[in-house]
Amino acid sequence: MSPTLLVMLIMMAVPVAMVFVYSTLSNVVMERDPEFVGIENYLTLFGDEIFRKALGQTAIFTVTSVTLHLLIGLGFAMMLNSGLLPRLAAALFRVIYILPWVFTASIVVILWQLLLNPNGVINYLLEAASLIDSKVEWFSNPSLALGTVIFINVWAGYPFIMISLLAGLQGIPGDLYEAAEIDGAGWRARFFNITIPQLFPILLAVAMLDFIWNLQQFPIIWLATGGGPLNATETIATFTYNLAFSKHEFAMASASGVVLFVVSAIVALFYVRHQKARD
Amino acid sequence: MHRRLVATAAVGAAAALVLAGCSSDDGSGDTVTLDFSQWWEVELSEGVMRGLMDRFEEEHPGIEVNLISNPYSATVDLQTAAAATGTLADIVAINGASVYDLQDQGAITDLSALMDDAGFDPAELVSNDQIDGVTYMVRALNFAYPLYYNTDLLDAAGVTELPTTWAEFDEAAAAVTDPSSNVYAWSLPINVQSPAGFDSQSWLWSSGNRMLDDRQPNFETPEVADWLTFLQGQYDGGYVTPGAFTQQEQQKVEEFTAGRNAFLIGSLAHVQGIREANPDLNFSIGSVPAQDGEPSGIAGASWGLGIAENSEHKEEAWQLIEWLMSEDVNSELATEATGFPGNASSVPGFVDGDPLYELAFEVYSSSEFVTELEGLPQALDLNRNLNENLVRLLQGEASVEQTQASLQEYWTGVLSDG
C-alpha cells in the first residue's frame, strides 16, 4: 500500500467509516458497551420535529445563499470586467469587493452583530430615514433571524464566486462580442448567447462547490444565533453539534452527520462527473 | 519494491517520532510532564498562569507542567471529545457544569482516594462536592454574581434607595428606562449557544427559592410561577435591552459599561474590566433584590480541578492540585482571578482597601452561595432548555403554566436518566 493511500485511509476513510458505524449503535462514547440498534437512530431522527425543521431550513439557507452568491458574484464580476471603470477604480473596487472573504467567520459575525444590534448603526439609519418606528431585533426576532443569517452568509461568501467568474469572463474571446455586435445583437442577446454559455462550466462548478460548503455552514450560524431563537435558524450542522456537545448523544449526532454526508456526497458526485465530462 | 519499502519505513519512522513527541514522559531522566488543560491562562493576566507553574516546577523537581490553554467553551468541547477517546490531559480544569458527565464517562478519577493517599484533609476545602460519596472535582475558586448598579443613572432617574424587593426593582426599572436614549434597566441574555450567566435564575435564588428539590426538578410551584411572571413583566414592560434572545454575556457587560444599563447581574471578575473600559462610570454592588426583601441566595460558579482516569501520573497531578489549593497560592490565584478561594483559610488580596470589593465580599459572606446546576448531568443542555422556554414565554408563545410544565417535563427526562 502506498504511503499516500495509507495517509488517506487513516485521515479520511477511517473517521467516515467510524461515524457510519457509530450511527448504528446505542449511545456510543457515553455507554461503555454500546449495542447495535440498526436504523433506530435514523428513525428517531426523522421522527424529531426539530430535525425536520432543521432539514427544511438547511435547504432554504443553502439554496438562497448559493443563488444570491451567483447573482451578486456574476454582477460584480461583470462590472469589474466591463471596462467602464477606469483602471485605478477597478483595482480599488476589486479590493473592496473581496474584503468580506478575507475576514474569518468570527470577525464577520462580530461586525454584523455590532451593525445590526437593536441599538446599532443600521437601526439608527433606518429610524433616521423613517423606514422603521421601533428597534428591529434582527437576530432575536424568530421571523427575521434566518433571513439575517442568510444575509451575513451571502455577504461573506460572494467574493469567491466573483473572483472565479471574473477569471472566466477574462477568458472569453473579445472577437465573439465584436462579431455579435456586428450582427446587431443587443446586450441582452450577448449576455444570454455568449457570456452565459461561455461561463456555464465555471458557473456549474462553483455552484456545486458553494452548495456543498453552504450545506455544511456552521460557524456563522452558531456564532450569530446558535440555531435560535426558538430553532428559527437551526440547520443540520447546528443540530448535530447540539446533539454531540450539549446532549452528549454521539450516536444520534453521527446519524445526523451521516444524513448531511449523504446529501453532500450526492452533490460531490455530480461535481466529479461534471469535471470528468469536461476533461 | 525497494523504493516502496523505503517510503513505508520513512512514514513509519515519522509516525514514531510524532508519537514520541506526544508522550507525557519526555525521556530526559525521571522528569514527568503533566498536561494541564484549562481556560484559566486565557482569562488571567498574561504570564500569571505560567508564572505559577514555573514556581511549582521549582518547588517540585522532576515535574514539568505543559499548559494547554483555550477559551472556556473550546476547552469544554475538547474535553468532551478527549474523554470519549481516553486522551484527556492529566489535569483538567472543569466546573460543576461538566463534572457529572465526565465522571459518568469514566474519564475523571476518584480524588477521594488520592486525597487519602496523600494525607490531605478535605476540611481544608470551602466545599467538598461529591457524587455518590466520591469527590471528582476540587473547587479552586468560587465566583459570586452580585447586582451591579449604575449610580449616575439611578440618581438621574430619582431612585435614591437601592431596590431590595421585586416591586421596588420594578419601579426603579420603569424610572430609569428611556428607549429614546437607548437606556434600559438591565439585560437578560438568554441565548442558546452559550448559556453562561445567571441573569434569570438569580431572582429566584435571591428569594430563597430553587428550581430543584433533592436534585429533581420542582418547577410547578407558586414560587416559580411568581418568578416567571416577574421576568415576563420586566420584558413586557420594555425594561430589558432589546435583542435578549441572542444576546451574549459579553454584550450584556458592554451595555452596562457603556452606561446604557442601570443594573447588571454579573461575576465580580467584571469589576476591573468595567473600570478599565470606562473609568468615568460610577457604579456599586449589592444583592439581587428578593421577592419580598431580605435576599438570601447569590448565584455562583466555580473553577474546579480534576484528574484524568487515563493519566499515568495521577500522584504527580494531585501534587499540583494540592499546591494550587495551598493557602498562599490559592489566595494569590483568587486575587488574580477576582474570585473567592477554595481553601477555607485563604483570603483574597483584592478585598483589602477597595471599598467595592469589600462590599462584594460582604454580600458574598452574608448570602448562601447557590450553585444549583452544578454536578447535574447535561447541565449545559438543561441551561439551554431553560433559555428556550424563557424565550417561548417572553415571546408570548407559552403561558407561565405551560412554561412550568414544559421545564418540569424536560428536566425530569434528563435528570431521571442521569
**Oligomer, anyone?**
heterodimer
Strand content of chain A: under 5%
- CATH superfamily caption of the largest domain in chain B: Periplasmic binding protein-like II
Shape of chain A: globular
**SSE sequence of chain B, one letter per element:** HEHHEHEHHEEHHHEEHHEHEEHHEHEHH
Q: Would you tell me the structural class of the helices and strands of chain B?
A: alpha/beta
Query: How many helix segments of chain A?
Result: 12
Overall 3D form of chain B: globular
Given as residue ranges, the uncertain stretches of chain B (5+ residues, pLDDT < 50) are 5-28
CATH topology of the domain at 46-103 and 144-250 in chain A: MetI-like fold
Number of strands of chain B: 12
CATH second-level architecture of the domain at 46-103 and 144-250 in chain A:
Orthogonal Bundle
User: Which percent band covers the strand fraction of chain B?
Assistant: 5-15%
Architecture (CATH level 2) name of the largest domain in chain B: 3-Layer(aba) Sandwich
Contiguous low-pLDDT stretches of chain A (5 residues minimum) are none
Which range best describes the helical content of chain B: under 10%, 10-25%, 25-40%, 40-55%, 55-70% or over 70%?
Answer: 40-55%
Report the largest inter-chain contact.
A-B, 33 and 37 residues
Mean pLDDT of chain B: 87
